[in-house]
Amino acid sequence: xxxxxxxxxxxxxxxxxxxxxxxxxxxxxxxxxxxxxxxxxxxxxxxxxxxxxxxxxxxxxxxxxxxxxxxxxxxxxxxxxxxxxxxxxxxxxxxxxxxxxxxxxxxxxxxxxxxxxxxxxxxxxxxxxxxxxxxxxxxxxxxxxxxxxxxxxxxxxxxxxxxxxxxxxxxxxxxxxxxxxxxxxxxxxxxxxxxxxxxxxxxxxxxxxxxxxxxxxxxxxxxxxxxxxxxxxxxxxxxxxxxxxxxxxxxxxxxxxxxxxxxxxxxxxxxxxxxxxxxxxxxxxxxxxxxxxxxxxxxxxxxxxxxxxxxxxxxxxxxxxxxxxxxxxxxxxxxxxxxxxxxxxxxxxxxxxxxxxxxxxxxxxxxxxxxxxxxxxxxxxxxxxxxxxxxxxxxxxxxxxxxxxxxxxxxxxxxxxxxxxxxxxxxxxxxxxxxxxxxxxxxxxxxxxxxxxxxxxxxxxxxxxxxxxxxxxxxxxxxxxxxxxxxxxxxxxxxxxxxxxxxxxxxxxxxxxxxxxxxxxxxxxxxxxxxxxxxxxxxxxxxxxxxxxxxxxxxxxxxxxxxxxxxxxxxxxxxxxxxxxxxxxxxxxxxxxxxxxxxxxxxxxxxxxxxxxxxxxxxxxxxxxxxxxxxxxxxxxxxxxxxxxxxxxxxxxxxxxxxxxxx
Amino acid sequence: xxxxxxxxxxxxxxxxxxxxxxxxxxxxxxxxxxxxxxxxxxxxxxxxxxxxxxxxxxxxxxxxxxxxxxxxxxxxxxxxxxxxxxxxxxxxxxxxxxxxxxxxxxxxxxxxxxxxxxxxxxxxxxxxxxxxxxxxxxxxxxxxxxxxxxxxxxxxxxxxxxxxxxxxxxxxxxxxxxxxxxxxxxxxxxxxxxxxxxxxxxxxxxxxxxxxxxxxxxxxxxxxxxxxxxxxxxxxxxxxxxxxxxxxxxxxxxxxxxxxxxxxxxxxxxxxxxxxxxxxxx
Lengths: 663, 282
What we know:
The complex is a heterodimer.
Chain A: H1 5-30, H2 37-62, H3 68-86, H4 93-105, H5 110-132, H6 138-144, H7 146-154, H8 174-184, H9 194-213, H10 218-229, H11 232-237, H12 244-264, H13 267-283, H14 287-306, H15 313-334, H16 336-345, H17 361-368, H18 381-395, H19 413-430, H20 434-437, H21 442-458, H22 470-485, H23 492-513, H24 524-529, H25 537-540, H26 551-554, E1 564-568, E2 596-600, H27 601-604, E3 605-607, E4 612-615, H28 617-626, E5 630-632, E6 641-642, E7 647-651, E8 654-657
Parallel strand pairs in A: 1-2, 1-5, 4-6
Antiparallel strand pairs in A: 3-4, 5-8, 7-8
Helix pairs in contact in A: 1-2, 1-3, 2-3, 2-8, 2-9, 2-13, 5-10, 5-23, 7-8, 9-10, 9-12, 9-22, 10-22, 12-13, 12-14, 13-15, 14-21, 18-21, 19-22, 19-23, 21-22
Chain B: H1 2-11, H2 14-27, E1 33-39, E2 42-49, E3 62-67, H3 70-79, E4 84-87, E5 90-92, E6 95-99, E7 102-106, E8 110-115, H4 119-132, E9 138-140, H5 143-146, E10 149-155, E11 157-161, E12 172-176, E13 179-186, E14 190-200, E15 207-210, E16 213-220, E17 224-225, E18 232-244, E19 247-255, E20 269-280
Parallel strand pairs in B: 3-8, 9-20
Antiparallel strand pairs in B: 1-2, 1-4, 4-5, 6-7, 7-8, 10-13, 11-12, 12-20, 13-19, 14-18, 14-20, 15-19, 16-18, 17-18
């Protein structure tokens, strides 16, 4: 925003503080019937994310004037308005947090102190990783971040981008909006992992609050909430620009407020749940399934516990009004992406809901295995049975090394096996015991089980467990509640065993997940010691090690003012199955200054069956017209071979056009 | 619960070794090289020299590029004979080569192109030249000898593979077992000494070179590894005297060992040939 970094930090902190402050005011109002500061904190964070989301969408889509200044002014106005309206409900958050910390420190529990130490250490490690390591991982290169660059360069959010990655224009990009927010004030991508990290941090008050409401003591609730934070997939993903943590923590947050509603009949809790669901809806196209599953379970529990409300006309009308308001809130926060898909493609899932003729063949099959619904095999018994069969091997994580993409494993970690399984077995048992069946706490467990089973029917892939993060979260805190209620923690032997297990698990996770991933660690020291301009995703990632398109590492020597054209298409004419999507983000510098233009392969290249191509006249003409000299014919780690005297090969798949028009 | 935790840790014990390997890589890694140029004890240019996958034509140095300011260029061109070059604080031997639009700075391991004008265009031309004049694996001891024959890699040869940052393996070509063939097409009858430098993945690899062979020699070398990758390669050097007749001379390299598909390789890799040196018979 400014050339002075201190000024940028000042503006960034000031605007975030302002939005958070106003969120606390609104959260106080929404929770005024609950004197619970943790709930206010959780609500405030949800409102904070929602305000950022809606403000970027409004300025980007409706006003088409999106930049740091417009965001600053708009959010200052909205926050000012919220403070004016709800300041009287504000709870003293800082004092509450200090008081809570004092409470923790006065517990005189060595295990708790050690866990607190490890937590602080882990948080520091994660923050260092976020700021030092660049955005990485396949999906981030293909569709999570390239749209944010486009929004930044255009100053608006277009309905669709001209791109070789088909799914960009159909994905829900709610979390990319937050990525944009954490870029725009510095115009540097060093905070791209922060949104997922903040969502991961939300797990601490969230799971703590659930356990406290279920009667678990402060000490044990804190310990188990720490343990949940240390779930491997949470640690691995909280430094990435992916969206699975946000999706699933948002879901658990929504369940918390529905749980509160079932306990208190406070209608405002439903509006907060709707806010969480709005965020969830914006993060993945699969989110309506989350909402539907919750509605089914919540309706059953509502009927079991509060059906008398339906007999009272006033209460019924109030509830109906709240439900309608909640629906509006959800759609306003997260509905844009589905509405866009409806407008562009006439289908809520856009192009991701069906195979176009272009997507047949091996690449089409591979695309089906990624994390979206594939209509061709939607709801299959085979898939369901295969998922059930794989469940035990997956949760024990032994089939692969830890990695944020969770290839052939769950990433649920030792804590799920040690504690979560007990929670799962007991939760299944309560379905058959009438006495426990209607307990509002079951909104978590039943929704968790049902959602997993629904997922199992349509989503089977080697990476599918990255979407099931909700599962270990729910069943570990549920196990904590059961253990506490069974008074096992009163027994010194059991308590010691649990304490030791927790410490072993935490140390195991810290040590195994500490080394950075998706890079060559032999080059890590070099990477860290490099000047900022060299510390880019292209220079960090080692995804391409096997096939060696060395031009990704050449990019750091090319000034950002030099535009690049990438030639690609959907068809699987690149060698091998791995080259499904173009890694667009790797072309950008960390300040998003470089212009990257898509050229559709069929129009511009003539290729034979051996992937050898020649340039058509249109390519030279359009490159000249757009003043582009550098051309990539690589998708991911695979490249075509361009043979043309006007194109000098700089590295395999990367060419310099000498500027002659063949026409 | 404790038993389940124990089972989890037992089943995942290989992750400890994996993580230890990662820590080892990080600990033994090096920070980026810092190169400084001094003139009369005054530093007037400094460059970070990151590792690069782009290798120069002879396959020896990593190539990097930098923009050069006019002031730096003037000093480099005027004072390059009295410049002191330091890498990571230590004086190193460096050669400065002046070209229109850029200056080349060659150190034992790196080749820095310091470009003063038309940066991208010059960079493209430099890269094209480096690739165009890239050395293959055939080296002749003198040019006259080289003009006498052509080489056809007829059967079982992989493409030229560049040195990789991931290992200590130099530029070369994989050959496939059980037999790899090549042809030396000679313009006259001539006796030559052909020395084959190769790395074999099998420790007990036996190589037989067949053709118009007059004499055979074998030189033993120490094993090298592509550390810290587990692959170990066993260097072997064979020298054969060949009597090349005018026309096509078939050479056959036969191996007793090669990798099979069960070792994860799709191809029956037998040896990685890093050079074939053709010289006179003394």
